[in-house]
Amino acid sequence: MEYPVQSGFRQRKIQPEVRMRGAPVDPGDPRLLFDDTSAGGIGHRQALLSDPVSNLAMVYGSSLASHGREMMDQNLDRFIPISKLKYYFAVDTVYVGKKLGLLVFPYMHDNWEVSYQQDTPVAPRFDINAPDLYIPVMGFITYILVAGLALGTQNRFSPEILGIQASSALVWLIIEVLAVLLSLYLVTVNTDLTTIDLVAFSGYKYVGMIVGVIAGLLFGRMGYHLSLLWCCVSIFVFTIRTLRLKILSEAAAEGRLVRGAKNQLRMYLTMAIAAAQPVFMYWLTFHLVR
Amino acid sequence: MAFTLYALIQTAILFTNAIAVLHEERFLSKIGWGAEQSIGGFGDEPGIKAQLLNLIRSVRTVMRVPLIAVNSVCIVLLLLFG
């Protein structure tokens, strides 16, 4: 390390510099914000910091960067409600296990109501009926991976196929959510279903699709058809029982027969949404199993 | 069917354009879907037809100016990249 003879206090600064290479990062230290791991890193950093003006410029630049990041976080929160999204990811292992079991076997579950705590819905960790986004997101990613696996066993795989499957499934999801939103608007349902709730409910079918495709890989077409039939019926029942409480009026949701065109229309809407799920499940998986 | 996100955007633009070109007095009034024919009372049940007419009218009002911009961008991109 050749550099011109420094004065005393700069030599003292060099020693902690060398020790800090392996030490844990101090978050308040602006010099470590852009860690240079190249071979000449130590020499460069010291050559930079030897000039007080560039030291000042570096501190100012890093403060600008953190300020910009704060501003971007605030603005991003306006478009994508990140704080609301966090509610949907507040899950734990027990919830995920129970929910997956409920998606495949919803026939024994009695109480489908979402519990509230002083007007705000309880986090999914504490209430199995609450919608979450963890299972749909993981299901989507797993579906793409399983699709790649299935295509690979038939020698039809190429890396672009993964991207095509992903964008195709995403487009169908967006179309389905938009169609449900449009029909909810037309029927003037006063519901507290948000768009993210609808995305969550539409994403639950990926679990059934994955089960069907894996069964098809293991047991052939017969296994695929049988398991897909089972999962389709389960998702149908699950969707009806979950959406019935949200879309229908309270009297009809309790099971009492309520006459009237409005409730009949809402029941038809719920059944249409539930019937669209098996259609999509078959549509998105039948080309994967030969 | 391999859909791409680009196909979805194209579909959305085409649908919005189709709704935007429905002329109020030449077409919609002729088939009984005009704006002034849908104002019922202030009952609590607008009904599907009234909601649909409301939707068409609001899409035409709101999306007129953004559609001009989006269509211009589309024209330029299609001219450049085919």
Automatic annotation (TrEMBL), chain A:
InterPro entries: Yif1_fam
Transmembrane segments: 133-152, 164-186, 198-218, 224-244, 265-284
GO biological process: endoplasmic reticulum to Golgi vesicle-mediated transport; protein transport
Keyword Signal in annotation: no
Domain of life where this protein originates: Eukaryota
GO cellular component: COPII-coated ER to Golgi transport vesicle; endoplasmic reticulum membrane; endoplasmic reticulum-Golgi intermediate compartment; Golgi membrane
Localization: Endoplasmic reticulum membrane; Golgi apparatus membrane
Keywords, ordered alphabetically: Endoplasmic reticulum, Golgi apparatus, Membrane, Protein transport, Transmembrane, Transmembrane helix, Transport
Membrane topology (UniProt): Multi-pass membrane protein
Similarity field: Belongs to the YIF1 family.
UniProt xrefs under PANTHER family: PROTEIN YIF1B (PTHR14083:SF1), YIP1 INTERACTING FACTOR HOMOLOG YIF1 PROTEIN (PTHR14083)
Job description of the protein: Has a role in transport between endoplasmic reticulum and Golgi.
Record's protein name: Protein YIF1
Species of the source: Cyprinus carpio (Common carp)
Organism lineage string: Eukaryota, Metazoa, Chordata, Craniata, Vertebrata
From TrEMBL, chain B:
Superkingdom of the organism of origin: Eukaryota
Signal peptide: 1-20
GO cellular component, as recorded: COPII-coated ER to Golgi transport vesicle; endoplasmic reticulum membrane; Golgi membrane
Major site of localization recorded for this protein: membrane
Family according to the record: Belongs to the YOS1 family.
Top-level taxonomy: Eukaryota, Metazoa, Chordata, Craniata, Vertebrata
One Pfam family named in its UniProt record: Yos1
Function (record text): Regulator of endoplasmic reticulum secretion that acts as a key determinant of brain size. Required for secretion of extracellular matrix proteins. Required for correct brain development by depositing sufficient extracellular matrix proteins for tissue integrity and the proliferation of neural progenitors. Acts as a regulator of the unfolded protein response (UPR).
GO biological process: endoplasmic reticulum to Golgi vesicle-mediated transport; protein transport
Organism (species): Cirrhinus molitorella
Localization per Swiss-Prot or TrEMBL: Membrane
Protein name, entry field: Immediate early response 3-interacting protein 1
TM annotation in the entry: 62-81
InterPro entries: Yos1
Keyword tags: Membrane, Protein transport, Signal, Transmembrane, Transmembrane helix, Transport
